[in-house]
Structures are given as structure tokens and as C-alpha cells.
Amino acid sequence: MAGDIDLRKYSMLVVSLSGSPTLKSRSGVVLEHARSWLQAHGVDVTALKIRDFNAEDLLYARFDSPQVIDYIEAVRQADGLLIGTPVYKASFSGAIKTLLDLLPERSLHGKVVLPLATGGSIAHMLAVDYALKPVLSALKCQEVLHGIFAIDTQISYSDNEWGGELDEILTERLHEGLEHFYHGLQRRVQARQPEAPEYFLKLAL
Ligand SMILES: Cc1cc2nc3c(=O)[nH]c(=O)nc-3n(C[C@H](O)[C@H](O)[C@H](O)COP(=O)(O)O)c2cc1C
To answer: 96 lies in a domain?
Structure first.
């Protein structure tokens, strides 16, 4: 009976982490577009921004802070993560590192991660590959997808905090990356519930 089925087993959960310390954030605009795309495809997205955390909890690594406990639990339950970061000094932001440092070892085991980075020029377009991927790998993530890197001129702001437009090429690349991410999430749901009747998989996906 449909009423007896736990639909959580068939739903896809994603946590989106924004690592920009600024209120008007280009990487935040990219994350927001990704969130809309995923939600339009039936994925639940919990959007967490570094700015919403108590800075002292992050700097002093307060594992017992209620906000940090909620964050760790959200990541534990997620099938996948979107990690959005500006490039700072040829690497990802230090703010996002404080968030990742709070996660227990093996936190990303079995999850799929799509990194999204923005920078002032293409000079550091490989920052995600050489800097972020080893950190994700230390958290036992086996499926880090090719990151999407955008330069500032590809993103325009709107007046509101997160609004903004992506240029056509970036939109195309982002959607392509999200398709791969979505397929990774689908594989997670299927692995979680291999006997899921096709009907319920379609309902959830
Ligand atoms: C402190 C600081 C350091 C930066 N370092 C770099 C850098 O090394 N390479 C680069 O391409 N852009 C660099 N930028 C530019 C930002 O990465 C770029 O503007 C980014 O889109 C900002 O994202 P945000 O608006 O989400 O914070 C730097 C910006 C700041 C403020």
C-alpha cells in the first residue's frame, strides 16, 4: 500500500554550503541557480551559508554548538553536497574550510559532491581540483564531480541578496554539471532501496 511506504527512502536530499563571507556573493548566485534547478527536479535542498553561522563556533571549532550539531546532522542525512566558494589567494575560502573541518571523518562517504567556484580570472580555475578535492577525499568522498568554475564577468547581480543572472555559457555548463549530480543522487536512492518498485522511484525522482 502506498500509504505504508516511507517516501524518505526514495527522496533525494542535498545540502548546499556557501563559503562566501560577503552578503552579495557571486558564488552565492551560482548556488542559488543550482538550488532552483534541483528543486524543480524534485530534490530537497537545505541551503546553509557561512554567514548564518556564529563565527566563534567555526573559529574555535565548537562541536557542541547546537548550530554545528544541526549542520553535521544535515550533512549526515544528505545524499549529496553542493559546495560553493569564491577563490581566495588561489584556493577555496578559509571560511568553507572551517565548515569542512567540523565534519567527522568519513562524513562524505557514499555522497556525491559538486563543487562550484567563482574567481576574478581564469588563472585559478584549477583551485578546486588541487585544493578542495584532497580535503573532500580526506572526508572519504569517492564521487567528487568535475567542478564548475566561473569568472566574475559571467555573473551579474540583482538588487536582492541572492538574485543575479548567469551568462549563457555558464548556464549551459552549470546545467550539464547538475545533470551529472542528479544522476549521482539517483544512484544513491537506488542503492539505498534496491528493491524499490519502479513506480515509487519515478514518484520520488
Ligand atoms: C581576499 C580576496 C582574495 C581573492 N583572491 C583571488 C584569487 O587568488 N584568484 C582569483 O581568481 N580571484 C580572487 N579573488 C576574487 C574572487 O574570487 C571573486 O571576486 C569571487 O567571484 C568572489 O565570490 P563571492 O562574491 O561569492 O564572494 C579574491 C577576492 C578576495 C576578496
So the answer is: yes
Residue 139 resides in a domain: yes
Q: What pairing do the DSSP bridges indicate for beta strands 44-49 and 13-18?
A: parallel
Q: Measure Cα distances from 105 to 60, 124, 141 in Å.
A: 18, 28, 10
**How many residues are there in the chain?**
205
Total domains present in the chain = 1
Residues with pLDDT less than 50, the chain: 1-3, 199
Q: Which atom of ligand 1 is nearest to the CA of 90?
A: 8
Q: Convert the pLDDT of each residue in 159-202 to its tens digit.
A: 666 679 999 999 999 999 999 999 999 998 888 776 655 545 55
Does residue 2 belong to any structural domain of this protein?
no
Domain annotation covers residue 6:
no
Could you give the 3-state DSSP secondary structure of residue 41?
A: coil
Ligand 1 touching residue 152 (CB < 6 A)? yes
DSSP secondary structure letter of residue 161: S
